Every structure is written in structure tokens, then in C-alpha cells.
């Protein structure tokens, strides 16, 4: 009799638990990350208000504002999506943002006037250019140690890694060249002469071609990365700067600081196939969502971010952010 009652109680508890599991509106098991299954977020550095705006890319609304250092510009997300690094040109350091809480958890010294930056595939190395110092810093983000300092050209703007991670490309806006660095030996491999004021570098997914925007020349140069030869010169609008290439490699998007638009290059023909007008001046840097369906463009003098549908090449919306937005990155 006692055994029968015990079996009945166990059966009741099992069925009750099963009902709760199926019908409860609340998650019963914690996910490993607060952002699990969340839509990507765009992080935008606002250089005159010393803050980063956080945008939910599903709703295109600002969901948080994070105070950082002085004159934030360069911005990049760690490969695991847990941290965002922001270079602060006037406080000479990097702010580290925890993406789960959208708070700054630490700072990392980063030389004199850190600007553009990137991170390698496993998150073990940060690459940061010092614009006034004319060098590239390679930093271990865990230990905060500067692993190497590599002299580059005059006034380096940013740094971009090749798709295989073996080379770092640094466009130098005053010496009008791109420094190519071996990421294993930290040695300069070559310097490629380009147009006036090179700003952005973007690679096709196979890494065979690099598209370099030249702000003052008003052109994008297409470079063969095997030979470092210029394959094509593409006439653009006024002051081309930020670039992004779709995941399938078919289109390059180029933001223009003075003609107030984004222009689209067909990589099969290396011709401009569309011009997308923007509201406001100084379209600067750009970032794509992981699926490549939306492009986020900082429009500095309008204090907003334009969102472009890459299927239709039309502006979907503009998002008010802080003062003089500069960089943008997407946390997956």
C-alpha cells in the first residue's frame, strides 16, 4: 500500500514538472549568455559626446548609451561578442565594454592618439594605430601588454586584417601609402603607393583583392593582394572613406564624407552601379549585419546613423545617436 502511494506521488510530480516545462511562459534553464538568441547590436562611437550608442538592429532603436574615454573613434567587437573595444584619442586608452551589461569594465593603455583598430579571429590580439605616433600597436587584451610596436607611414588612419589573418593593412593618410605587415613576425612586408588620403581597406571574401578608398583623390583603388599591383581605379564621389563588402563578395559599399551618399561598386565589373543619397554631411564609417542585409553608416554632422537595405539599396531609416558619430561595429 505504501509502495503504491509512493508511485502515485512520483507520477504526480513528474506530470506536474512536465506540464510546467511545456506551458510555462518563463525560461526554466539559464542560457550561457544574456545575449543568446538576441539580434545583433550596433555599437557607435560618438567622438564629441565621449560615449557609445548601442542600437538594437531588429528595431533600429538606441537601447543604451555608454560613457567612455575622451574623443572615442575606433571601435571593434571581440569575436565571441562579449566585449567591445573603443579607442579614445584624447585619453590615450581603450575602453572595454561588457556587452551583457553595456558598462565599461576596464581600460587599456594604447599609446598616443589611438584611432582605427581591429582584432584577430581568436581575440588574442588587438591591432591599434597611433595616428600622431605613426605606428601600429599590437596588444594582448588579456594581459594589456603591448606585444609589438611597428612603425608605419605618416598619420595612419586604421588597420584591417586580411581574411586569413596573416597580414595587417594600414592606410596612411599623409604619406599616401598602405603598409602591409606580417602578423606572425610583426615585420613590414611592403608599402603600396596609392592615391591621396587613403582611408578605408576592404577585402573580397577570398582575400585576393583589396579595395582602398582615397579620400582626397576621390577614387577607390583595387589591389591584387598577391602582387600588390593596382588592378583598377574606380572614380567615386567626393571624399570616399568607409567601406564594406557583402559576405558573398558581390558588392562594395563606400561612404562619402562630402557628397553625402553611399555608392555601390559591382565587384564583377568594378563599376559604380548605385548611389544612395543620405540626409546630413560627413558619412564616415560603415558596418554590415552578419547576414549582410543591412548596412549601418555613421553620419557625423547629422548626429545620426543611416540604415540601408542592401537588397534594394535604399535607406530604411535614420537613428539619432550622440554628437559626431565616427565608428561603428556590429556585435553578433
Characterise the protein shown here:
The protein is 7% helix and 50% strand. The protein is mostly beta strands and 332 residues long. It has a domain at 68-193: Methylamine Dehydrogenase, Chain H, CATH 2.130.10.10. Residues 1-37 have low confidence and may be disordered.
Helix content: under 10%
Major sheet attributes: 4 strands, antiparallel
CATH superfamily of the domain at 68-193: YVTN repeat-like/Quinoprotein amine dehydrogenase
Secondary structure tally, helices: 1
The H/E string reads HEEEEEEEEEEEEEEEEEEEEEEEEEEEE
**What is the fold named in CATH at topology level of the domain at 68-193?**
Methylamine Dehydrogenase, Chain H
**Large-scale geometry:** globular
Low-confidence stretches: 1-37
CATH class of the domain at 68-193: Mainly Beta
Percent of residues in beta strands: over 45%
Assembly context of the chains? single chain
Number of strands: 28
CATH architecture of the domain at 68-193: 7 Propeller
Distance linking N and C termini: 58 Å
Strand order of the largest sheet: 3-2-1-28
**Rounded to an integer, what's the Rg over CA atoms?**
23 Å
